């Protein structure tokens, strides 16, 4: 119903437009937080069910043995605690470990299938790269190169110096002298 009654630009540019049409504007913010909490709790509970199944299959032995414990209603509450602890440990290191583990398992299960899926993924990545419109705000490859070699950023005429380079100090005139104007000649001694 909202899409039929509101303009397209409003829907695309103002994500909080419901605040202006709601009887009590803070209720929209409460709803956003409630939806976010619900989605994260759903992921936490779903992941704990998978962890519980891994524990029941004894895939990780004694490490996940406590995750087999369930409540009287059959809820794997220890697996939920395990999952919560794993979420607290998440970083780029654990993400990289997960990617490497996933690739290892892919090739152990089916080397041909893993190779085919990687080739397909690289082909799609190349297709997207070739079909992507030109960016007006830069590219990640340029950012990486410039980050690795500070002070080597190319400059266009009239552009500002990069943020990593401190500005050159401006010479101050001697006390009692008038400051020089840009382009003027210094007085002869």
UniProtKB/TrEMBL annotation:
<dbReference type="InterPro" id="IPR004841">
    <property type="entry name" value="AA-permease/SLC12A_dom"/>
</dbReference>
<dbReference type="GO" id="GO:0005886">
    <property type="term" value="C:plasma membrane"/>
</dbReference>
<keyword id="KW-1133">Transmembrane helix</keyword>
<dbReference type="GO" id="GO:0006884">
    <property type="term" value="P:cell volume homeostasis"/>
</dbReference>
<protein>
    <recommendedName>
        <fullName>Solute carrier family 12 member 9</fullName>
    </recommendedName>
</protein>
<keyword id="KW-0458">Lysosome</keyword>
<feature type="compositionally biased region" description="Pro residues">
    <location>
        <begin position="159"/>
        <end position="176"/>
    </location>
</feature>
<feature type="transmembrane region" description="Helical">
    <location>
        <begin position="77"/>
        <end position="99"/>
    </location>
</feature>
<keyword id="KW-1003">Cell membrane</keyword>
<feature type="transmembrane region" description="Helical">
    <location>
        <begin position="23"/>
        <end position="47"/>
    </location>
</feature>
<dbReference type="GO" id="GO:0055075">
    <property type="term" value="P:potassium ion homeostasis"/>
</dbReference>
<feature type="region of interest" description="Disordered">
    <location>
        <begin position="151"/>
        <end position="189"/>
    </location>
</feature>
<feature type="domain" description="Amino acid permease/ SLC12A">
    <location>
        <begin position="15"/>
        <end position="90"/>
    </location>
</feature>
<dbReference type="Pfam" id="PF00324">
    <property type="entry name" value="AA_permease"/>
</dbReference>
<keyword id="KW-0813">Transport</keyword>
<keyword id="KW-0472">Membrane</keyword>
<dbReference type="GO" id="GO:0055064">
    <property type="term" value="P:chloride ion homeostasis"/>
</dbReference>
<keyword id="KW-0325">Glycoprotein</keyword>
<keyword id="KW-0812">Transmembrane</keyword>
<comment type="similarity">
    <text>Belongs to the SLC12A transporter family.</text>
</comment>
<dbReference type="InterPro" id="IPR004842">
    <property type="entry name" value="SLC12A_fam"/>
</dbReference>
<dbReference type="GO" id="GO:0005765">
    <property type="term" value="C:lysosomal membrane"/>
</dbReference>
<dbReference type="GO" id="GO:0015379">
    <property type="term" value="F:potassium:chloride symporter activity"/>
</dbReference>
<feature type="transmembrane region" description="Helical">
    <location>
        <begin position="105"/>
        <end position="128"/>
    </location>
</feature>
């Amino acid at each position: 119903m909202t899409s039929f009654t509101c303009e397209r630009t409003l829907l695309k540019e103002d994500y909080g437009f419901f605040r202006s049409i709601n009887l009590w504007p803070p209720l929209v913010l409460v709803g956003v937080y409630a939806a976010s909490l619900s989605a994260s709790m759903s992921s936490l509970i779903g992941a704990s069910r998978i962890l519980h199944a891994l524990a029941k299959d004894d895939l990780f032995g004694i490490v996940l043995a406590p995750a087999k414990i369930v409540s009287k209603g059959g809820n794997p509450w220890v697996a939920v605690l395990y999952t919560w602890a794993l979420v607290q440990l998440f970083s780029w290191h654990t993400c990289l470990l997960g990617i490497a583990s996933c690739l290892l398992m892919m090739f152990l299960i089916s080397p041909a299938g893993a190779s085919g899926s990687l080739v397909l993924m690289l082909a799609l990545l190349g297709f997207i790269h070739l079909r992507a419109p030109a960016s007006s705000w830069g590219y990640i490859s340029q950012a990486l190169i410039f980050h690795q070699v500070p002070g080597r950023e190319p400059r266009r005429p009239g552009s500002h110096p990069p943020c990593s380079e401190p500005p050159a100090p401006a010479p101050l005139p001697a006390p009692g002298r008038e400051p020089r104007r840009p382009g003027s000649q210094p007085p002869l001694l």
